[in-house]
């Protein structure tokens, strides 16, 4: 089976500072991969290199077997490499459905070009309705985003990514800023995503990581120090020492 995403030897330097150091990652369909590491470990930079927001100094990114390393960010997005941001970027005065429609229009450009106008409108409505239902936001469709609780705003942000029909979804701290009592709503939504999708998420809350990840990648000083299942990572001495700050015995 071809991996959804294959990152090989990815490297990035800012001047003399190597912030991504020969990183290898493989994401299979259905994976929920958590990217963890101390502040400044290079997690966001790695996501930016994968999406093409930042140009790599070396290495390659393959999406469903195809080398996309030389492609700009919008072209990678059009092929299904979609990301969300640490801080929400929504249109507060517009409704939930209108925000999702913007994502749907981006998607439309890539595949509805041959349809008639009414068919396009219908396809947009259907795509928005599908994602609203998937995220249990249907009853919020006509509410301006600024009136939603922050946790729901983050769900809308996830919705915009979903309406673009990702094959690989990269989430930069999807539950950041959401009260802990509500963060499971977002993680449950991620957990419920279609089986054939691959998800990479940056998360600092270890409870969420160990509850939702199928695979964990530990990044320290730009390099992957360990990759494994949650139980393998929990048992790894080096991770406990370097990342969780436990004294070596
Ligand atoms: N544009 C830039 N120019 C110079 N250095 C940068 C730039 N962007 C990031 N860095 C540096 O790269 C390193 C990694 O930053 P990055 O934001 O990727 O880490 P992170 O693991 O996502 O951190 P956090 O958990 O705090 O979000 C840091 O030392 C940061 O200062």
TrEMBL record:
<dbReference type="GO" id="GO:0016887">
    <property type="term" value="F:ATP hydrolysis activity"/>
</dbReference>
<dbReference type="InterPro" id="IPR027417">
    <property type="entry name" value="P-loop_NTPase"/>
</dbReference>
<dbReference type="InterPro" id="IPR003439">
    <property type="entry name" value="ABC_transporter-like_ATP-bd"/>
</dbReference>
<dbReference type="InterPro" id="IPR003593">
    <property type="entry name" value="AAA+_ATPase"/>
</dbReference>
<keyword id="KW-0067">ATP-binding</keyword>
<dbReference type="GO" id="GO:0005524">
    <property type="term" value="F:ATP binding"/>
</dbReference>
<dbReference type="InterPro" id="IPR051120">
    <property type="entry name" value="ABC_AA/LPS_Transport"/>
</dbReference>
<dbReference type="Pfam" id="PF12399">
    <property type="entry name" value="BCA_ABC_TP_C"/>
</dbReference>
<dbReference type="Pfam" id="PF00005">
    <property type="entry name" value="ABC_tran"/>
</dbReference>
<dbReference type="InterPro" id="IPR017871">
    <property type="entry name" value="ABC_transporter-like_CS"/>
</dbReference>
<dbReference type="InterPro" id="IPR032823">
    <property type="entry name" value="BCA_ABC_TP_C"/>
</dbReference>
<keyword id="KW-0813">Transport</keyword>
<protein>
    <submittedName>
        <fullName>ABC transporter ATP-binding protein</fullName>
    </submittedName>
</protein>
<dbReference type="GO" id="GO:0005886">
    <property type="term" value="C:plasma membrane"/>
</dbReference>
<keyword id="KW-0547">Nucleotide-binding</keyword>
<feature type="domain" description="ABC transporter">
    <location>
        <begin position="5"/>
        <end position="246"/>
    </location>
</feature>
